[in-house]
Specification:
99 residues; alpha+beta; DNA-binding; homodimer; 3 strands; three-stranded antiparallel β-sheet
DNA sequence: TTTATTGGTAAGTTACAACTAACGGTTAGC
DNA sequence: GCTAACCGTTAGTTGTAACTTACCAATAAA
């Protein structure tokens, strides 16, 4: 789960996700829009794929990548869970001060 | 904004956030619960503070850290925005195939 | 079959993040 | 004023992530 955060923590990978959010794209297509080489993009896509943030399907010699909606779940769960806890703790501290 | 993701991408920092979500704590207190030294915790807290994920207040010689709820906003906005776009793009692709 | 297109992988380099040890600064208590 | 407790910062080391170049595999087209 912290894997997904680390994956999105890299600016290039975040940009890849933003591009793919617009529409599915092939590797070379992505590389043409980014300031890095195609192999670099390929390596980033591998990280994103392992984090369940993107999917890929074959199309001839091309590989079309798209967002994997399944990866979002754990992230949002984690955020909601701990921030709710933080707010509860904050309220509890305030309660101690005075009504 | 990708700063916040990078901050949460480190497992030690994620654990710090989890502990602070339970209740505000001092630096030494945190260090006693973690597998790293106190200076390391201090450096991690600096990163989390720059990412607006924690706040600190002075209490004598101690520094008490707590979650900063303000840091969550941009993260959730980013997630919602791009995943909504991804789902829309996904639906648009499906539409092209056949009704 | 040969040639071109498209991608993943390997090797090697470089920059940076994470850590510890040592030091200095600030507040509390005697 | 002196001592102790608590914390941030600096210096230095080490592991690893990100990148490019070069190479190999697979499919499409001629």
């Amino acid at each position: 789960m912290t894997n997904a955060f680390a994956a999105l923590g890299d600016p290039v990978r975040a940009e890849i996700v933003e591009k793919l959010a617009g529409r599915p794209m092939a590797v070379g297509e992505l590389a043409a829009l980014l300031p890095v080489t195609r192999p670099a993009v390929s390596q980033h896509l591998k990280v994103l794929k392992e984090a369940r943030l993107v999917r890929d399907r074959a199309d001839g010699t091309r590989r079309v990548y798209s967002i994997d909606p399944a990866g979002l779940g754990p992230i949002r769960e984690w955020l909601d869970r701990h921030w709710d806890a933080a707010l509860a703790a904050f309220a509890a501290e305030a309660e101690k001060e005075g009504p």
